[in-house]
Amino acid sequence: MGRVYNFSAGPAVLPEEVLKEAAEEMLDYKGTGMSVMEMSHRSKAYDNIIKEAEQDLRDLMNIPDNYKVLFLQGGASQQFAMIPMNLMKNGVADYIVTGQWAKKAYQEAQKYGKANKIATSEDKTFSYIPDCSDLPISEDADYVYICENNTIYGTKFRTLPNTKGKTLVADVSSCFLSEPVDVTKYGVIYGGVQKNIGPAGVVIVIIREDLIPEKPPVENTPTMLTYKIHADANSLYNTPPAYGIYICGKVFKWIKKMGGLEAMKAHNEKKAKILYDFLDQSKLFKGTVNPADRSLMNVPFVTGNADLDAKFVKEAKEAGFENLKGHRTVGGMRASIYNAMPIEGVEKLVEFMKKFEEENS
Ligand SMILES: *Cc1c(COP(=O)(O)O)cnc(C)c1O
Fold it and tell me: How far is the CA of 74 from the centre of ligand 1 (A)?
């Protein structure tokens, strides 16, 4: 069987070129006579891999020198704890809850201090981004937290919230490297890489140096959950997720070759437009979120009939379009169209949807 069009929300499609290169290097990485999987993380060869990966990421995102780049483990979910443990100096943080992932982060933070939910879109099943221009930001908040792209619901912050001078912390797991960002607007940008960058097992944390405390304010924070430990050791305090970082490095090079984040944005906008334009005129399918808040990465849609949704997902799978079933908490369908999804994947999906619409209306 050939490769399918994989619309999975994560772990998700990776550039074919990257997979082929990794396959070629599997048994003998650049004359070392071993796979990167078998290599000491203290070796010269690996040192080059992780340093180059960091530099390429810095180039792509224009990361200023006063920010650290950390390659960690534990997924995005571990950051739900690591952020409050390290950043809650006053023991207070404000959370904007726009989906399941933000909600989980908010709940986790309550274990370590006072977490305030200052805005939410839960009243309408997280189908929009609330107005964040004038929120009741707490006087002593250590940070304001957002999940910038809501993977499950398919919404994205088009403008960042007005934090009234407080540090912005953002989970960008599902929009990482999908378009240019101004890193200086954030204190912390982090994300699990398995949505748009690489294999599961790596989380990247970009953090402004002055936010990293000598000692975490939360009593008895484990060594492994201490930013300072990882920052001082350049992500090599213990064995990092070495092979995953190597693949991330290849994806960074692929994005550079494709023209960087401006080019990625154009590519992603083009793909998303094809799908949203179709949804907007379809008599059978419709998008589920407020148009102004639509994500470029995750596109949920429904027919309005659960049986017909199931039929669509089944027939789409038979036609080579995988993982179109919506998240279990929302139903319907969701097409995740990350960086590595080619335009023809979306064009062919829309063709298939047109045909399904004709046959079922
Ligand atoms: C997938 C996802 C997570 C959870 O990631 P894990 O690496 O599985 O912990 C968190 N936030 C967002 C936005 C996600 O899409």
Answer: 10
